[in-house]
Amino acid sequence: MSANEQGWDVRRLPSTPGAFVWYFIARYRRFYLGMLALQTVAVMCAVLVPWALGQITRKVSQGLAADQAFAVLTWPLAGFAGLLVLEMVCIRGASWLHVRTLPRQRRSVTHAMFAYLQQHSHRYITSEFAGALAHRISEVSMGVTQTLAILIFDLIPLLATLALAVVILATANAWLALFMGAWAVGFLLLCWFLAQRSHPLSREYAAARSTSTGKVVDAVSNLTNIRLFARHPFEHQYLGQYLDREVAAAHRSLGYMEQIRWFQNACGVVLKLGILGLVLWLWRAGAIDIATFVMATSLSLMIITDVAGLSRRLLEFFEATGNIANGVRTVVRPHEVTDRPDARPLKVARGEVSFNDVTFGYHAGRPIFQHLNLHIPAGQRVGLVGASGSGKSTLLSLLLRLYDVNEGQVLVDGQDVRSVTQHSLHRQIGLIPQEPGLFHRSIRENIHYGRLDADDEALLAAIDRAGARGFIEAMEQGYDSLVGERGVKLSGGQRQRIAIARVLLKNAPILVMDEATSSLDSITERYIQDKLDEIMDDKTVIVVAHRLSTVAHLDRIIVFDRGRVVEDGSHAQLLAQRGYYYRLWSRQDVAA
Ligand code: ATP
Ligand code: MG
Q1: φ, ψ at 367 (rounded to 5°)
Q2: What's the longest Cα–Cα distance across the chain?
Q3: Which of 123, 390, 402, 512 to mutate to test the pocket of ligand 1 (most atoms within 8 A of CB)?
Q4: Quick one: which atom of ligand 1 is closest to the CA of 122?
Q5: Atom of ligand 1 nearest to the CA of 394
Q6: What are the structural domain ranges in the chain?
Q7: So what's the pLDDT on residue 10?
């Protein structure tokens, strides 16, 4: 599935910050054009106010009798009032459009980023901090709206004000226009230059912030470990290092911003004094009249007010663009494991699984499997045993294409797992992973996850088979009990039974269990095994287990050692071979 219900292609999010922001502007372009138009009118009004003030001053200074004042000034005053009202209405109108757009745009950004993140490979997801990723998504969606708000409500109006001020001054006096123009160009160029230099600093600050947030989330989710090892001071110190780095990065970034403020304030003083001096000089020389005098000084005062607000806004602007750059760079990377353009849905008729000449390692140069060959005929129930770290879980990950093989092929019913869509592959294989995670939702929701449209009858059947009914119904909230984050409020065996029920409900033609019953007592395990045997008839089943009694009754047992198949046969055959399996069996038997 390449496009979600909102109609955008989650695989093709722009990967540079600028293009990313543009992508979301384009989605709301009518709103943004409306805001721009209203802001432009508002700026025009604002700049014309000093001009109208000049006209009024001129009339007053031409020796107006007091009783004539209102008659003569009616139109200039009406114009003045009109400008003020129009400016206000336009600004409020733009702001209203902004209020309409902002929440929806944030929703789109969050949604698109999350959809993109979902497509990332298992390797990516397991090597990033969950907390940091979530933090980045929210920073990016905040960043996009902030950046655009500052552009539309601060930076663009300022540019327009400066340009219009120059034009208006030009109609009165060329020197004034020249001075204002030179000041504006110099100011903007320097701002631009300083902005360029501040960018890496604010990016570094954003990265430091998101790392320390990731560390906090990691520590918070390991609070129990901290307690059990009495490592409170250690964790304080550990987190302290990252917070110190954040503080240092903040000092660099904010300190630099402070320099920019000094510069901006100085520019303001130059403009105020410069315009006043120039106006006085021109007036004395008779080059301008009183109207221009008033207009030019009030224009410069207005611009200085705008510029003073700008320094704070620029700070936020750089921070927001830094956040966007940081988040986009982390999240919007090319996906590592993707569906081929010509990928078709996997069709499972029988459920045959083959590993053909497979070579794979998590890291280059350290292969786990080398030229592994394994064929599991349709409908066979296979046990996979072997020492810890011998590659059993990895083999299952390859079957599910959580990682791509380096060489060779993994085939399901003759179809290479790389040639089919991942969705269809994962729908046809029910996996109970070694560490099943549950959502912090109710038990019912967790089990329903296996098949969202299952009715109560199917749900209860799955729960019965998984031997979970008794303990669920004994709970105070029953099926509505919340299970805690990742299922921590359940016992290990209860969590496993919820995970089994969830997969049984899914009812996929291929069933894969990685230590699915390892935390259960042998009586409960026996009960579930009997139930599972009933439904295994038409399925291909792979069961990984350390406890050999879990797999002894299956059709075939494969013994793994350091990524190689060392023994292969039925329980009786392997015992007769008196090899590795035999030794394991005798030892567990003795232990039991
Ligand atoms: P166990 O019985 O303990 O579950 P296993 O047979 O399932 O062991 P695997 O989990 O497949 O073993 O691991 C095989 C090897 O691959 C181990 O050496 C392990 O350290 C390594 N490994 C597993 N997962 C990763 C990963 N995500 N990144 C890098 N190396 C990994
Ligand atoms: Mg394992």
Answers
A1: -70, 145
A2: 125
A3: 390
A4: 27
A5: 11
A6: 13-331, 353-591
A7: 61
Q: Whose Cα sits closest to atom 23 in ligand 1?
A: 394
pLDDT digits (tens, 9 = 90+) for 331-359: 898 888 888 889 999 998 888 999 999 99
Q: What is the identity of the amino acid at 373?
A: N
- Residue nearest ligand 1's atom 11 by CA: 391
| pTM (predicted TM-score) | 0.81
Using CB distances shorter than 6 Å, the residues near ligand 1 are 126, 362, 368, 386, 388-394, 434
13-331: CATH number: 1.20.1560.10
List, for residues 494-544, the tens digit of each pLDDT value: 999 999 999 999 999 999 999 888 888 888 888 888 888 888 878 999 999
Instruction: Return the residue whose CA atom lies nearest to atom 1 of ligand 1.
Output: 388
Distance, in Å, from the CA atom of 78 to the CA atom of 377, rounded to the nearest integer, reads 91
| Predicted pLDDT at 535 | 81
20 pLDDT band (50/70/90 cuts)?
very high
Domains 13-331 and 353-591 belong to one CATH topology: no
User: Is the CB of residue 396 less than 8 Å from the CB of residue 542?
Assistant: yes
Lowest mean pLDDT segment, chosen from 15-19, 56-60, 462-466, 526-530: 56-60
Q: For the stretch 33-58, what's the b/e string if a residue is b when 16 or more beta carbons lie within 10 angstroms of its beta carbon?
A: ebbbebbbbbbbbbbbbbbbbbbbbb
Amino acid type, 238: Y
- Region 99-106: mean pLDDT is 91
pLDDT confidence band for 318 (50 / 70 / 90): confident
Atom of ligand 1 lying closest to residue 387 CA? 2
The string of pLDDT tens digits covering residues 137-168 is 998 999 999 999 999 988 888 888 888 888 88
Interatomic CA distance for residues 484 and 495, integer angstroms: 11
How many whole angstroms from 96 Cα to the centroid of ligand 2? 56
What sections of 412-491 are H helices per DSSP? 422-428, 443-448, 456-465, 469-474
Cα of 516 vs centre of ligand 2, distance in Å, is: 11
* Three state DSSP letters for 324-343: HHHHHHHHCCCCCCCCCCCC
Instruction: Give pLDDT tens digits for 25-45.
Output: 998 999 999 999 999 999 999
Q: Which ligand is nearest to the CA of 560?
A: 1
353-591 domain in CATH 3.40.50.300? yes
Q: In three state form, how does the secondary structure of 194-258 look?
A: HHHHHHHHHHHHHHHHHHHHHHHHHHHHCHHHHHHCCCHHHHHHHHHHHHHHHHHHHHHHHHHHH
pLDDT at 1: 39
Query: Of all protein residues, whose CA lies closest to atom 25 belonging to ligand 1?
Result: 362
Q: Which two tokens stand for residue 293?
A: 């005098």
- Taking the CA of 360 as reference, the closest ligand is 1
Distance CA 328, CA 136 (A): 8
- What's the CA-to-centroid distance between 539 and ligand 2, angstroms? 22
Number of CB atoms found within 10 A of residue 577's CB? 14
- Measured from the Cα of 390, ligand 1's closest atom is 6
